[in-house]
Amino acid sequence: MAKEIIQIKDLKVHYPIRSGFWNRITGYVRAVDGVSLTINEGETYGLIGESGSGKSTTGKAIVGVEKVTSGSIIYKGEDITKASNRRHLNYNKDVQMIFQDSMSSLNPRKRIEDIIAEPIRNFENLTTDQERDRVQELLDIVGMPSDAIYKYPHEFSGGQRQRIGVARAVATNPKLIVADEPTSALDLSVQAQVLNFMKHIQQQYNIAYLFISHDLGVIRHMSENIAIMNRGRLVEVGKKDDIYNHPVHIYTKRLLAAIPKVDVEHREEHKKHRLAVEEEYKNDQSKWYDENGRVFPLQKVSPTHSVALPASEINEMKESD
Ligand SMILES: Nc1ncnc2c1ncn2[C@@H]1O[C@H](COP(=O)(O)OP(=O)(O)O)[C@@H](O)[C@H]1O
Ligand SMILES: [Mg+2]
């Protein structure tokens, strides 16, 4: 059995909407609205969804930089949504984040040496020489030349900056890294390099990733367990095979149908399929979402596969088996 590293239970993050002369709270953006998932040690858990579905907010809540409205995040048996628990567990050492846009997440006024050393300084007392050795070692791990330590972020390409972001994230020897669209801003060829070397580092140090992406191809390459996020909730959760070969929810089918197909032979078929799925998505909203447009609770359709369906739909599926 795989060992669990973190458990997210019914996580909600709601942002108040203020309006009018008194700037009163008139409603809430339900950015994350009841997400539960479990990540195992050393695995890559894929979180997929379109822009605005709540992926980044989920990631930020997990690393502890976003205030949680309700729910719990269990790490080493304790709920780290409480700051005091994060402190005494040294949670900020064990759990790191990599962002999509390394240009804005790496301080442009700091040299690479200081950028990578910063998280180390928070947790270890190293001499200047020891620290420099450690930074050199980290740069070496991510395949960057040693003179990089004297340079600034703008002196590197996008792919190199993502490597620096990874070096910084692994500096504290973390157990879990939340990687939020880490390669989405990169050219395809560079993307593959960074992904492969993230896998390599994972194997070497047994790091778990929560790998966030809107790109189903990237997630398929990286993850075994996958969740599909839509309107702040999970619409479908399963193994790679469940999601890619046996999708049930219309939102998942729609995402899959939108993947560009290279094979020319079946182009017409794919187009027909895509249009049919799009039609179903438009016309059958009331079947897939409740009367308020919200995603239904997840229901198990197999031991590894859950789908957000109304209870009536589940019975129908069981009867037709
Ligand atoms: N600080 C914030 N205040 C208000 N609304 C926010 C804030 N951050 C995100 N949102 C909203 O929450 C929803 C989810 O955003 P986000 O988690 O960034 O989605 P994703 O990463 O999937 O694109 C969006 O509607 C977004 O506009
Ligand atoms: Mg995002």
From TrEMBL:
Keywords: ATP-binding, Nucleotide-binding, Peptide transport, Protein transport, Transport
Record-linked Pfam families: ABC_tran, oligo_HPY
A GO MF label: ATP binding
Domain ABC transporter residue range list: 6-256
InterPro entries: AAA+_ATPase, ABC_transp_ATP-bind, ABC_transporter-like_ATP-bd, ABC_transporter-like_CS, Oligopep_ABC_C, P-loop_NTPase
GO BP: peptide transport; protein transport; transmembrane transport
Homology family: Belongs to the ABC transporter superfamily.
PANTHER family: ABC TRANSPORTER, ATP-BINDING PROTEIN (PTHR43776:SF8), TRANSPORT ATP-BINDING PROTEIN (PTHR43776)
Protein name (record): Oligopeptide ABC superfamily ATP binding cassette transporter, ABC protein
Organism: Lactobacillus kalixensis DSM 16043
